[in-house]
Specification:
With 565 residues, the protein is an alpha+beta fold. Helices cover 28% and strands 25% of the residues. The protein contains 15 helices and 22 strands. A 7-stranded antiparallel β-sheet has the order 20-19-16-17-18-21-22, sandwiched between helices. It has a 5-stranded parallel β-sheet with strand order 9-8-7-10-11, sandwiched between helices. Strands 3-2-4-5 form a 4-stranded antiparallel β-sheet. A hairpin with a 4-residue loop joins strand 2 and strand 3. The longest helix has 18 residues. It starts with 8 loop residues before the first strand and ends with a helix.
């Protein structure tokens, strides 16, 4: 420094402390230190936050830095310094580990910045960090929240949590809140209490009825992501008919264009191809004849999925043209478009809950693994959080993919991304992205203690993720990825035995009407607890009192290959 050396220097971890000492600053021992793979660090030049891996017990005292040095990074939880830079010379540091062999690799770009300085001869560190986070705050006074709609599988009860949390979050920000929800049995429709909606309409969540409420209440903003698929579909219809523009109502959070990009299977495929993400070979079709042609290209057995569908409605594995024709006719009865894709039956099914704000800060809150392989709807599957059979490489690979995909799609708030992962390699395919709170979101919130719906509602208002407080500690930031020292197991519950002539087989269309969640130190413990909660007659993981005796070998094979309740 004293000799006038002007070549770029990038100090990492101890290199940060050495640079600080060389700059004349002092280094002090921290009470606990920062260790782990989920430390949130804020770039003070851009106001962007990153999840970083750290392992250090000392920090630079920035009050002892000379006038030619400035802090570059700060830990968003405890406020300690995480990096410095020289105002005139090409020197900068990071206390965390951007090389991150174990992940996450969110700050790997710092090496590119450093190499760029070396090649270009840049002498200003400030010129590296020009992508300043914009002010995205939405200035609204009254917001209409679309609830979950009437009672049916795939909506209603599981979205009571998200709507209730959203209303609470909006009220905390001093916003007048109007709720539409015809389900009188939900908590969010209660009129008493400080954190309840100012007005509740027990009316059907349909486009024409929503427009009438908009005419009467004149809201500034509309939140679609808290009411499941019903809210999304109505929002898309209002947008396409010009109703929102006509009444000057702004959709808060994920835009309708982004919603359409995730729900329209053809656009979704094109969007992912733009960033070279992996999808199962598939074709979006609008007629049964086109579906049959597409199936010949991807070969049987094939999977069909409905666009704009609720709870996997209209989806399933088709084994031959007759089966496809029957399934497709049912799917087109409720959806204008279906996707015919290559079957990945038997692959692992993994999902991530992802949160992103309008300033592009993005984290994955929880990852979950289905006990059942691909082919069983997540709502009908035993789900374990966090995943138990993924290697660290697989986990970080899917995490990076999730963040890249969510950023490219322009999601603001919370979403759920589902993967198919080959159990014998690291090959994967993205199945779908739900740009809304889902049943899995409620499970992830309870499993991690992270209030996804409340955070998503505040992000919809344009508040940046690092500026939202951790609901548990009330002092740290909500921009962090929870780490669990326990295991959560979810088991669905069905009531198919109450109905005559109803198939008890389960597949890619959800049939469960509820679920239980258990917490334990091991998979065996949490599974045992969950089984006992599912039904009083179940004592746990043990043989049935009635011994099953198949009438034929064919029946036994069928029972073993085709899941049922």
């Amino acid at each position: 420094i004293e000799s006038g050396y002007d070549k770029p220097i990038f100090g990492i971890c101890m290199g940060n402390q050495m640079m600080g000492l060389a700059a004349g600053a002092t280094v002090y021992k921290m009470p606990f230190g920062n260790r782990g793979m989920n430390q949130p660090v804020l770039n003070l030049l851009t106001n962007r936050c990153y999840i970083t891996p750290q392992n250090h017990g000392y920090a630079i005292d920035i009050t002892t830095l000379g006038p030619e040095w400035k802090p570059l990074f700060v830990n968003r939880n405890d406020g300690t310094n995480e990096g410095i830079y020289h105002v005139d010379k090409p020197y900068f540091t990071a206390q965390f580990h951007p090389e991150a062999r174990g992940g996450p690799t969110d700050t790997e770009f710092l090496f590119d910045d450093y190499v760029g300085m070396v090649k270009s001869g840049q002498r200003s560190v400030g010129s590296l960090f020009t992508n300043v986070a914009p002010d995205t705050r939405q200035h609204v006074k009254k917001v209409l929240v679309l609830g979950s709609g009437g009672l049916s599988i795939g909506q209603a009860g599981e979205f009571d949590y998200s709507g209730n949390q959203a209303i609470k979050a909006l009220k905390e920000e001093g916003i007048e809140t109007v709720l539409m929800n015809p389900n009188i049995a939900s908590v969010q429709t209660n009129l008493e209490g400080d954190n309840q909606a100012d007005a509740v309409y027990f009316l059907p969540v349909t486009a024409d009825v929503v427009e009438e409420v908009i005419k009467k209440e004149k809201p500034d903003g509309l939140i679609l992501s808290m009411g499941g698929q019903t809210g999304l579909n109505v929002g898309v219809e209002l947008y396409q008919e010009g109703t929102l523009a006509k009444h000057n109502v702004k959709v808060l959070g994920t835009t309708v264009e982004s919603i359409i990009a995730t729900e329209d299977r053809g656009i979704f495929s094109d969007k992912l191809n733009e960033i070279n993400e992996k999808l199962a070979p598939s074709f979006a079709v609008n007629t049964i004849e086109d579906a049959l042609v597409a199936a010949e290209k991807v070969k049987y057995p094939c999977m069909i999925r409905s666009a704009f569908a609720l709870g996997g409605l209209g989806s399933g594995i088709c084994h031959d043209p007759d089966h496809l024709r029957d399934m497709a006719s049912k799917a087109f009865a409720s959806s204008p478009q279906i996707l015919v894709e290559k079957s990945l039956l038997g692959w692992k099914e993994v999902e991530y809950e992802v949160v992103r704000d309008a300033a592009d800060n993005c984290i994955t809150v929880c990852n979950m693994e289905n006990f059942d392989p691909l082919g069983i709807h997540t709502g009908d599957s035993i789900v374990v959080a966090p995943s138990q059979t993924l290697s660290n490489h697989d986990y970080m690979m899917l995490r990076d993919t999730a963040i890249n995909t969510v950023r490219h799609l322009g999601i603001i708030g919370e979403c759920n991304i589902q993967y198919a992962l080959d159990p014998h390699s690291d090959d994967y395919c993205i199945i779908e992205v739900n740009p809304r709170l889902s049943r899995s979101s409620a499970l992830a919130s309870k499993a991690t203690g992270y209030p996804l719906a409340a955070v998503a509602a505040k992000l919809a208002l344009g508040i940046h993720l690092p500026d939202i407080r951790n609901a548990v500690t009330q002092t740290t930031t909500a921009c962090f990825e929870p780490s669990l020292d326990y295991l959560v197991c979810k088991i669905p519950r069905w009531d198919l035995t109450k109905f005559d002539k109803v198939s008890r087989q389960i597949g890619s269309a959800m049939k469960s009407v509820g679920e239980v969640m258990a917490i334990g130190r091991t998979f065996e413990e949490s599974l045992q607890k969950a089984m006992r909660m599912t039904d009083p007659s179940i004592a746990g993981f043990e043989p049935h009192h009635k011994i099953y005796k198949p009438e034929s070998e064919q029946e036994l094979i069928s029972e073993l290959t085709q899941p049922s309740d």
